[in-house]
């Protein structure tokens, strides 16, 4: 714990707040179950698990477990010490934590059924007064410790614990879009905690707390710099910056998190002094091999490279007449011997010109570029595919590339930072959106190929897969600006570990841990979170059409903001109708990229789901949706309704005054009020725009001006 | 001359380039007419006139006049000296320059008819081989010197000169919107030449050259800081900055230019430590009187204060329940004893809310605020009224306030800097626009009350009046970014001196002085300048509706950019029509602010001039203009045509390669090419927008997409 977690720093502790239990009698009784904690492991990760448990239980119950002598060393110099060496270990109620290999007593308690845990799983069993957390690895034990604390904080009765968990996904990654000047691309919570003024500059205590937050949800990898790696960031792979990067890696390592770097494909030229970055050039290959060797000398468990190439003016293999596979494989070869990965982003499109091009459908780009390359990538390459074909809109169909490549490792990329979903000034709990993506049936193998089974590798039998997402944190005390936006970071990690968790269950876990066990607070917060995505969607761009935002910064309504621009983001609204014809029959053909019956569903004007209708079809304003409303009336109704519901969020939050910490309360209330005002602006701009275009009045006679 | 006027610094000398005459035989002969120059005046201003003539004639003819002994002192240490004292004076052809009071021979030459010249006028007469420039004041003599040089540079035969000139307007002012951080609000030619890094920081040689340029056109006042005076600029009126401001004033003084300061109405609070800025508060009055005394102690001919109050969130008397007259008069009282003016801007409107308000017509604001105050202002207050009711759009009607106040001093405000007219990346010669304004018949007194006669004071017998305009210069070597944008600064000064000059005559003067006497160049440049306003108007917002620009920076097309914003700048386009109903009968009533028959002309759908139709009326797309075209076809035709004509400008300029200095050529060519591309973008955005709204295809079948 560092000094930032003081009074007046509400929000900093986030979901690791370990609020004191409100029922002090019950609390006292429960605390007796954890009189001591012990482990025979001696590594930093198990020490971290012990420290966390001592802190968590101590804060929640008012009495910290004594660290038994055998575990004293593990807790390190600063942990509380048992006054009676060995007295507690094994006698009376307590906690055992660690690896099976090091702890004979854990092997005794769990017996033989533990193989299924894998490298990162854990088992928890309460037996004979001892709560045992066992794993094959120290990080498994750490995950188990966080899990036990989560159960205690959310009020689960832990007397009959019998838990076996392992993560669904191998790769559970966070991408920081942080720049070395201290700014964060699409960051809405202050400046970077990693960089400042063109230097790597961080507070180790804050980085450790970030690692704790991430590890508590199960995150195991972090790319620490922006995928748009600019001139100075290009040099991260050279010697100058490596000592500081290694310090960061060492902090994350304790929490089971491997560090990756976003690289600049042109680095051999920009910082290597070579005349080319051609991936087939022998000098280029050698240069990258040397960089990999340097990095692994400093960071033995380095995770690998994250690459955005040949997209939005980033350099890449196309310059040299090479393809994505040749580019990725060259880097993969350099990392292979060290166990590193190449994570290659599929957000690939380029504007061929300075002016709009309505013939090319940008939605097609990822599929068109990558499908032909299936099987061409090395085993340590993973393609990182955005959840939708465009760019993190509030509503998009699922990317047709997910599941389409049978012989290629894939991770799905989400955006935790709310670039298009209110920039942490509007409440938008994104877990329901991600659940929709994960549960989407790709039909890759008939009827049992949802996205979550594609990216965990099981559909196509891939050894590697998982999740990536863009972080939403910054140097703001509460990490995420909007206090409730923490739920998105938390929820992402939890889903990456277990995509079967419901959005509501995650919301409830988060609320109870963050605000304590007051049910009134938790219920209100869960309701607000669960409503928020629908509210946001209702007052912004309708029916999946997207992009009605201000260019560049992407905050606030601008119906035609992207309509006359070069980015391939058009809604084609005219006086008769709106929407993009992406059918095979008469449109861009994008609908045909889907597998099996999905293609037909989207192709069909009648079958296409309402919420995606304008993404796939250009539709007259008078067309009746499945809801029975016309398109234009749907627009009016959802926008009037959405603005009212946004105002309701502010009221609901106001009802919690005095029940949540004052800092959090004030911070969030100001944002809810901004959201309510801003939702009215959204309502009026969208409604006026479509009223003026269509000339159709609101059936219910409300004022559109 | 300073060292910036070297090779490779083309553009710096602007219209004072004094190109060598191309016909060397004629040149030689003419130069004989100016063998010497003499004056009995001894002040800095006449010295400057002599220096200018020596430099100008020397450069143009290859032989500088000898400064006669009697004038040697006047030319100062650095002027060329006559080798034979007194030998030249009065013998053979030469130039006499100075005041009648100091020069007996001037009195002899001109006789008695010189009273009409006033304080700033001059007379030129060539008689008996002597070219005489006489005036009542040194600055009159300076204006005469510049005029003679203009005649020589433009090739006027000066053997029979008989010229009497006096300025039409008393106040001929430039407003610098320069900020002390070195930035310039709406500046498109580099940073400030006055400020840098929160300090007053200038190169005296450059300021002197700016003063020369201004004085050569007749400018006699300059407000040196942004009308939006911020915290540091508020302190210009206190002691700290005055020594440096006095240095600037001293440079301008030599060239007959009085210095003014833009003030912050809240300065008594912000820098004076008073609890209020209430104009009726005794302490506030005293504070301003003290400031005025301080300033005049440092700058005896200080011009006065320029004030933007109670507009766009600037502080003003409204805060204290006072009106504009009370605010202005309080400042005027403080300045009165010293001979200073208060120039009070009428660009007054405020957004009452954060969101749009379609009921209030911002166009009405200046008239509604100020008309009731007629007669309430002190004699040393001048109202500065923007040429149109909105904000320097390419086409607006003339402000109805101009001429409406009989007992109030008025100056018309133009914008030389091209905020809404292409930002010195597009060519837009604004003199024709200003001429339209100046020639507009206000009907204040029946049929002989054009704006130019209102602002020169003659219509209502006001002692004070004139022109103000926002400068377009910055630290770019060529002053204005686009080399041809210099013509706007030149033209503004010339019009302020003499509003009867034609736009074409001014263009020709400017071209010949700037690029030399090559007729091919001058003819091409004049043609381009004269076409440019119409070209710019044709591809931007149609028929006077304005505001189809990107918010904030105001560059480039954004048809709905201001349509849903709070600034009162709406075009009301819907599927049926476009334009703002400002009639009395059914609209905002703005048309009724005009005097006499003008009100009826604008009120009438049939009589309203085409070019202002959408400013005054909401019109169906199918309405036939007086041109015979429908509104929608007019939009299509002008936009297709405008883009073609913009491309033609680039071609015409390209034909001058080798005939204009290479730096100018390259600089302008790059801008013409940008303009041509950008005009296509304008064309496509506007046409597509209206095509989608109206559904009416182009009669001529051109592609609108």
Can you tell me about this structure?
Two copies of one chain form a homodimer. By secondary structure, chain A is α/β, with parallel strands linked by helices. Chain A has three domains: 14-165, Chitobiase, domain 2, CATH 3.30.379; 171-501, TIM Barrel; 539-580 and 618-694, Alpha-glucuronidase, C-terminal domain (Alpha-d-glucuronidase, C-terminal Domain). Chain A is 36% helix and 11% strand. Chain A is built from 21 helices and 18 strands. Chain A has helices spanning 24-31, 44-61, 69-75, 104-110, 138-153, 204-217, 231-234, 242-254, 267-270, 282-298, 324-336, 365-370, 431-439, 451-455, 486-497, 503-515, 519-539, 597-603, 613-616, 631-654, 662-694, and strands at 36-38, 66-67, 94-99, 122-127, 130-135, 162-165, 171-175, 195-196, 199-200, 221-223, 258-263, 304-307, 341-345, 381-386, 409-415, 465-470, 577-578, 619-620. An eight-stranded parallel beta barrel of chain A has the order 7-10-11-12-13-14-15-16. In chain A, helix 2 (44-61) packs across helix 3, helix 15 (486-497) crosses helix 16 (503-515) and helix 17 packs antiparallel against helix 20. Chain A is globular, with a radius of gyration of 26 Å. The N and C termini of chain A lie far apart (54 Å). The interface between A and B is medium-sized, with 26 and 26 residues.
